[in-house]
Design goal:
Number of helices: 17
Number of strands: 13
Protein name: Glycosyltransferase family 4 protein
Organism: Duganella dendranthematis
CATH architecture of the largest domain: 3-Layer(aba) Sandwich
Keywords: Transferase
CATH topology of the largest domain: Rossmann fold
InterPro entries: Glyco_trans_1, Glyco_trans_4-like_N
Structural class: alpha/beta
Pfam families: Glyco_transf_4 (PF13439), Glycos_transf_1 (PF00534)
Distance between the termini: 30 Å
Length: 388
């Protein structure tokens, strides 16, 4: 069925552009790309726009460059009168139809020549400054708070995030709508055994391993996951590898040292820090015996949905948004307790009934959260804002 586009929306595409991200797409990039693909079916004419340094403007893959880089746009926001706005027309061309609104899918929020809707995924830089880089931290946090308040309406990705955005960013709760993330349809498809086994063989993996996916940084709590794994009985560690998929982030030097020390001691610990191929990542989920997500803080926690849709039993932290996302489909544990993490890992490895129950519940949960539904709900927010 063809949907007639009734809204013309500029969508921030900065986090999806390889030249601007180094080819690595984080959770915000996945979110942005999914909206780019699914909003047209919800009646939205999407115009991808990116903040890019002048030298990169001509190298963008699937978006147009906004007339200023983000630092210059922010500077202009503070030194120019409030009646001056960043022109989207300059990026789209004077002959193009004007935008109904602009959707900032990350924290790059400035005054535009149209209403601005912003998705704010969490308030970590302000709520937990110890987890972010200290360089210019106070200035960056102040700028981020000011930026959040420039949006006419805010989309939060979980009900947990609403509380943080109100408390730490000073956003009016009446101007916040919750739209959960989704999971791509192909995650529900099971890769062929041949393709999966080829990927596992490439990385010297044996099916049935414990899997973690995420950037190595303090809030992901991988140190306790590794410690929990190392407390498991030797026979269990011998049978099941711990596979950590994620690039090295800030303040992860000690964790990397611990991972390498475990490997040198003959432990079954595998760290894949260079994997960026989504097809191979899908294979790795498919080969896992259990997905363990001990994060201390998540605005949403997209890897949970990917694991659910892939038919993997999940154990996750009972913190922040994760119980909301899991909705009872995962074993939950205290992320500060190495013993509880280890107990959940042992249960999913040895209790076939619990594992089967978690797999079935996870698959049902993943079917409830789709990008098609997220796009429909996002389009409804646009209409709500424009009807005021």
């Amino acid at each position: 069925m063809t949907v007639v586009s009734s809204l013309r929306v500029g969508l921030s595409a900065t986090t999806t552009e390889p030249v601007l991200t180094g080819g690595r797409m984080d959770g915000i990039g996945v979110y942005t790309k999914a909206l780019m693909e699914h909003l047209p079916q919800a009646g939205v004419d999407v115009q991808p726009l990116s903040f890019a340094p002048p030298g990169d403007a001509g190298r963008l893959a699937h978006s147009r460059a906004l007339p200023l880089s983000f630092p210059l746009a922010v500077l202009g926001d503070f030194i120019l009168p409030s009646s001056v706005h960043l022109s989207t027309h300059t990026a789209l061309g004077k002959s193009a139809a004007p935008l109904d609104l602009f959707h900032a899918t990350d924290y790059r929020i400035v005054r535009m020549d149209c209403p601005v809707v912003a998705t704010l995924h969490d308030a970590v830089p302000v709520s937990h400054p110890e987890w972010v880089r200290p360089r210019l931290r106070k200035l960056k946090n102040w700028l981020q708070i000011k930026a959040a308040q420039k949006a006419q309406h805010v989309i939060a990705v979980s009900h947990f995030s609403v509380r943080e955005l109100v408390e730490y960013f000073g956003v009016n709760e009446n101007n916040i709508s919750v739209v959960h993330h989704g999971v791509r349809a192909e995650w529900h498809e099971r890769p062929s055994a041949e393709d999966r086994d080829a990927t596992l063989a490439q990385y010297q993996l044996r099916a049935g391993y414990f899997l973690f996916v995420g950037t190595l940084q303090p809030r992901k709590n991988v140190e306790r996951l590794l410690a929990a794994y190392l407390t498991l009985p030797p026979v269990l560690r011998s049978a099941r590898q711990l596979v950590i998929v994620g690039s090295q982030g800030w303040r992860s030097e000690e964790l990397v040292r611990q991972i390498k020390a475990a490997q040198q001691n003959g432990e079954n610990v595998v760290w894949l820090d260079k994997l960026t191929d989504n097809r191979q990542l899908h294979h790795l989920y498919g080969g896992a015996g259990a997905f363990i997500f001990p994060s201390l803080h998540e605005g949403f926690g997209l890897p949970l949905l990917e694991a659910f849709a892939s038919g993997v039993a999940v154990a996750c932290a009972n913190a922040t948004s994760l119980p909301e996302v899991a909705a009872g489909a995962a074993l939950e544990f205290d992320p500060l307790s190495v013993g509880e993490i280890a107990a959940a890992m042992t249960t999913l490895a040895r209790d076939d009934a619990v594992r089967a129950r978690c797999i079935a519940a996870g698959e049902r949960r993943a079917l409830e959260l789709t990008w098609e539904e997220a796009a429909r709900r996002t389009a409804a927010v646009y209409h709500q804002v424009l009807s005021r």
